[in-house]
């Protein structure tokens, strides 16, 4: 079975203040150029065809829809983690386990 669907790529920009926005999108050759630029600048690439289909409906400069906030936030957090980054004020150390100090607990 062959897949003749065009290759698509969507680039998002996130400033840490506003919702991520679509900064580039394209099919086939333009998609390959977007991916090449991401590789050149060591931008993590996340592949998900269904998510690309949803984001491809947006215009350049559009903010992602609220329904995708959690999904995109998880991808951004993963990408930041790969690059050793974290949001300002974030403490990456694990929270201490709570202990039950009641009698018999």
Written account of the structure:
- By secondary structure, the protein is of the alpha+beta class.
- The chain has one domain (8-82): secretion proteins EscU (name from scop), CATH 3.40.1690.
- The chain contains three helices and two strands.
- The chain has helices at residues 28-40, 49-56, 69-82, and strands spanning 8-13, 21-27.
- A two-stranded antiparallel sheet has the order 1-2.
- The longest helix is centred in the C-terminal third of the chain and has 14 residues, at 69-82.
- The mean pLDDT is 85.
Name the beta content range: 5-15%
| CATH fold call | name from scop
Mass-distribution shape: elongated
Instruction: Return the string of H and E elements.
Output: EEHHH
CATH architecture designation: 3-Layer(aba) Sandwich
Number of domains: 1
Strand-helix topology:
Elements: E1 8-13, E2 21-27, H1 28-40, H2 49-56, H3 69-82
Antiparallel strand pairs: 1-2
Task: List the defining traits of the structure above.
alpha+beta, two-stranded antiparallel sheet, 3 helices, transport, protein transport, elongated, 105 residues, 33% helix, T3SS_substrate_exporter_C, bacterial flagellum protein export, name from scop, Flagellar biosynthetic protein FlhB
Brief account:
The protein is α+β, with helices and mostly antiparallel strands.
């Amino acid at each position: 079975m062959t897949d003749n669907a065009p290759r698509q790529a969507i680039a998002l920009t996130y400033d840490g203040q506003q919702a991520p926005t679509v900064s580039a999108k394209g099919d086939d050759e333009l998609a390959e150029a977007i991916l090449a630029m991401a590789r050149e600048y060591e931008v993590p690439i996340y592949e998900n065809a269904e998510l690309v289909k949803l984001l491809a409906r947006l215009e350049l400069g559009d903010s992602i829809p609220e329904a995708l906030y959690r999904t995109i936030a998880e991808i951004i957090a993963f990408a930041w983690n790969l690059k050793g980054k974290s949001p300002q004020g974030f403490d990456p150390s694990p929270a201490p386990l709570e202990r039950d100090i009641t009698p018999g607990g």
